Structure formats: structure tokens, C-alpha cells
Amino acid sequence: MTDKHQDHLDQLVSQWRVVRPDLEDVEAMAVVARLLHVARLIGERLAAHAAEHQLSVGEADVLFTLRRAGPPHLLSPTQIASSLLVATGTMTTRLDVLESRGLLRRLPDPEDRRGLRIELTASGLQLVDAVVGEHLGRERELLAVLNPRERQQLVQATRKLLAHLEAPAAG
């Protein structure tokens, strides 16, 4: 391979081809490893940005979700957890932290005596509005190496891969 973008994962694939020539499509190992490595690096950079605002990425995600909901910035914990694809126990911990900082409040659900609604406070709204623009700028920087065509190809490929991975297993 003479590609100027070769990396150590290409070397691993070559080593597998030498020691186990019977294995088919060992390139799949490198693709998955690259996806995992990219996800880890992006996660680390987003976590560093969130930490600048005394937030975890998960806590920022809660604030972003409430902000995206539009006025009155009010959702149930289940709606937030579902939007973020996290367990309700994880959500409870995040809500506790954000409530203790005065960024959101828990209110009784007027339609269900046992339920709650989570409301973004004025402080939470101010923080999320200050952070979201920076966050988007950081994400743009992370993808700046890709031209528009490559970004669109990445969108299509990851969308297809997610649909496959999220589909119920055939049984």
C-alpha cells in the first residue's frame, strides 16, 4: 500500500495477513479499531471542553436536550434519557448534579402524580446558550480535515452502519 495516510493499524492488518493468510477481510479489524479510536479521541476533546464549564459531556447533553426542546424547556426524565440513549439510573445522577448547581429543577408532573418534569432554569439556559456555540465550533474543528464531500460520505456511511447495528438481531 502506498497511501500517504497509512497508520499503525495498516501494519497490524499486514501482520495478520502474513501470520494468518486464511483469514478473510482482516481490513474489518482496522476499520472497527479506527472507529473506536476516533470516538475515544473525540470524546476526550469534548470532555475537556465541557470541563472548562464544570460539566461532564453527559451533563452538557442534558442541558442541550432541554434547550432543544424549546420553551418552556420542560421534559420528563424518561424523555431526556430516551433522547440521549442512556439508562434512567444514569439520568438520575446527571439530574442530581445539575439540580444541585441550580441549572435545572424537578417539578411535579401535572398529568401524573408519580411523575416529574425537568425544567431548565434561567441559569441553565444562560449556560447552555454560552456553551453550545463553542461546542459546535469545537466539533467543526474536529471535522475540518474533511472536505464537504468526505463529510457527506461519512454521514451516509455512519448512518447506514448505525441502522444495521441498531436493527433487532435476526433470530
Overview of this protein structure:
- There is one protein chain.
- The protein is mostly helical.
- 65% of the residues lie in helices and 10% in strands.
- The chain has a single domain (25-166), classed as Winged helix-like DNA-binding domain superfamily/Winged helix DNA-binding domain (Arc Repressor Mutant, subunit A, Orthogonal Bundle).
- The protein has 7 helices and 3 strands.
- The chain has a 3-stranded antiparallel sheet with strand order 1-3-2.
- Strand 2 (104-109) and strand 3 form a beta hairpin.
- Helix 1 (8-19) runs antiparallel to helix 2 (27-51), helix 3 packs across helix 4 (77-84) and helix 4 (77-84) packs across helix 5.
- The two termini are 39 Å apart.
Tell me the layout of helices and strands.
Blueprint: H1 8-19, H2 27-51, H3 57-68, E1 74-75, H4 77-84, H5 88-100, E2 104-109, E3 112-120, H6 122-143, H7 148-166
CATH topology (fold) name:
Arc Repressor Mutant, subunit A
Q: Based on the coordinates given, report the CATH architecture.
A: Orthogonal Bundle
Parts with pLDDT < 50 across at least 5 consecutive residues: none
Q: N- to C-terminal separation?
A: 39 Å
Helix content: 55-70%
In what order do the strands lie side by side in the largest sheet?
Answer: 1-3-2
Largest sheet: 3 strands, antiparallel
Query: How would the global form be characterised?
Result: elongated
Question: Which oligomerization state do the chains in this entry correspond to?
Answer: single chain
Estimated share of beta-strand residues = 5-15%
H/E topology pattern: HHHEHHEEHH
Mean pLDDT: 92
Number of helices: 7
The number of strands is 3
Structural class: mainly alpha
The first-level CATH class is given as Mainly Alpha
